[in-house]
Amino acid sequence: MAQLNTNYFARCIATLERAQAYLMEHVGDEAMYDIYRAACVKEFEIILEQSGKLLKKCLKPYFASPKQVDALTFKDVFRHAAKHDLISLDAAERWLLYRDNRNDTAHDYGEGFAEETLNLLPQFIADAKQLNDVIAKQS
Q: Gene3D superfamilies given for it (predicted)?
């Protein structure tokens, strides 16, 4: 398999970490807090989408044809990644929860949703970094 370029994915993770740190520094400043919260939510969405696309590429050797992998849903990608020991079952379950949270984003951009997403960020960032390592090793 050709080397997968994870530079953009890694940069998005770093950007999310910085946005989260700035967010925590601006808790008392409503305008800046809102800006950094929005940045965190957007990076969360980007990383989530990129994770599925990159992991799909890692799964291609495990299938008879690339078309089979291309047909997988996001959640199926993570289930198969756990099945083939690319990630742990616990990590796969967390990624499915992240996806559910993202799906809620599409329907509710309210403050409650954003705060719920922020609560996921510490574990999400750790999982994204781990996934970046897995993808880099697979390619």
A: Nucleotidyltransferases domain 2
